[in-house]
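Amino Acid Chain and Its Fold in Token Form
===========================================
Purpose: to set a sequence beside its fold so the mapping can be learned.
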Amino acid sequence: MNFFVLAVGLWAVAAKESIDAILMFLVFMFVSIILDMIMIGIYYSKGYAVYKLAGTLSEFRFSAGMAILNLLLKPLTCVLLYHHYRERGGDYGMSLPTSNDGGGGYENIDQPIPSNSQVEAAHPHTSIHDVSKSPLSE
């Protein structure tokens, strides 16, 4: 997993205008945080027992400390990545509409159309078969 995060990170650095690269790097960082927490939770006690039997407990403490430090620094990296994502013009749609002025794309068809009193009403059309009401018969 770390290889993919590194590869996407290099792509995000190389493609300075790409919004997709930085977003994918941010998503991979979130996934790696979750996976690191799971791996440390599962393998910490097993690793401690193995290194204690081998007599190299100081190496285990150092490696576990570095893994925990890496895990603590990843959220800071995610905040910085999100800042760069916003600088490149990315917007993940986290903003909500603030007002409903009726100018949006949604039109409520259940409501009647408001009429304008300034508009002159049209006269009904007379039928061709009804010659007695025709203006030509006068």
Residues 15 and 21 are 7 Å apart (CA to CA).
